[in-house]
Amino acid sequence: MTDRKSLRFTMRDKRRALSAEQQRDASLMLAEHLAAHRLFHLARRIAFYLPNDGEIDLGYLMEYAWQQNKLCYLPVLGPRNGRRMWFLPYHSDTQLIPNRFGIPEPVHSRRDRLFSPMSLDLVLMPLVAFDHAGNRVGMGGGFYDRTFGFRRYRRHWQRPWLLGTAYGFQQVGQIDRAVWDVPLDGIATEQGIQRFPAHTPD
Ligand SMILES: Nc1nc2c(c(=O)[nH]1)N(C=O)[C@@H](CNc1ccc(C(=O)N[C@@H](CCC(=O)O)C(=O)O)cc1)CN2
Ligand SMILES: Nc1ncnc2c1ncn2[C@@H]1O[C@H](COP(=O)(O)OP(=O)(O)OP(=O)(O)O)[C@@H](O)[C@H]1O
């Protein structure tokens, strides 16, 4: 097994092994950190995800975002060969259907894919492991990297801001950056938020 593969394996196991109480406590703490953060306040259109495979749950933060009249979005997978994602609005009455990985996503038609991921202000990105420099290992599909690849070429308009969300224990020593990896602007865990200032406005 390659390093990346075995890292995915151990971290995903660890994530799934958390008790319901540990998961809830961490999710609440994460929501408190993010709700108090400037990037969250400045953002109007925010991409969330529904937790899968033991991922840290953004549900509490999403409730708060709705109360604040922010627009919340969820990823939907594009055609199988493209491996790109689109983002669809998500309200409490949005109809969901499981995608090919069993993760619920908003029911939609092709026309709904007109909303560009470029129009988002803030993207909360699930991840499997991260390091001190903001390098990230995801589930291995390359979906986030492909969808937000344009951020690697944007010099002045640095949106959407890309914030990884994870449990603190998902931090590891060092992850090699692949050429297609999109650098994160920060990482939020139940322990707090780390920013990588080279990529964010001050
Ligand atoms: N909550 C959440 N939603 C998300 C993602 C995510 O990481 N988390 N994604 C981020 O990219 C996209 C989905 N990507 C995924 C990629 C792989 C697997 C997965 O479980 N793979 C299985 C084998 C898959 C199969 O062929 O059936 C595995 O590795 O065990 C799941 C989601 C979009 N939505
Ligand atoms: N922008 C891109 N263009 C072409 N191929 C890409 C791009 N981004 C990723 N890939 C391909 O996708 C595969 C998976 O990438 P990687 O292992 O970095 O996924 P990941 O970051 O763990 O997953 P995700 O982004 O879905 O969370 C890689 O083997 C790579 O070939």
Explain what this protein looks like in three dimensions.
Helix 2 packs parallel to helix 4. This protein has helices spanning 3-16, 20-35, 38-42, 59-67, 143-147; strands at residues 45-47, 71-77, 85-89, 96-98, 104-106, 122-126, 129-130, 136-137, 161-165, 186-189, 192-195. It is globular and about 40 Å long. Strand 2 and strand 3 (85-89) form a beta hairpin. The protein contains five helices and eleven strands, in the order αααβαβββββββαβββ. The protein is an alpha/beta fold. The structure holds the ligand Nc1nc2c(c(=O)[nH]1)N(C=O)[C@@H](CNc1ccc(C(=O)N[C@@H](CCC(=O)O)C(=O)O)cc1)CN2 and adenosine-5'-triphosphate. Adenosine-5'-triphosphate binds next to helix 5. It holds the Pfam family 5-FTHF_cyc-lig. Belongs to the 5-formyltetrahydrofolate cyclo-ligase family.
Distance between the termini: 41 Å
Which stretches are poorly predicted, pLDDT < 50 over at least 5 residues? none
Radius of gyration: 16 Å
Bound molecules: ligand FFO, adenosine-5'-triphosphate
The counted number of beta strands is 11
CATH hierarchy, class: Alpha Beta
Instruction: Using the coordinates shown, work out and report the CATH topology.
Output: Rossmann fold
How many distinct folded domains?
Answer: 1
* Topology as a string of helices (H) and strands (E): HHHEHEEEEEEEHEEE
Annotation field: number of helices: 5
The percentage of residues in β strands lies in 15-25%
Helix content: 10-25%
Class by helix and strand content?
A: alpha/beta
CATH superfamily: NagB/RpiA/CoA transferase-like
Instruction: Describe the global form.
Output: globular
Task: Name the strands of the widest sheet in spatial order.
Answer: 3-2-1-6-9-10-11
What characterizes the major β-sheet? 7 strands, mixed
Proper CATH architecture: 3-Layer(aba) Sandwich
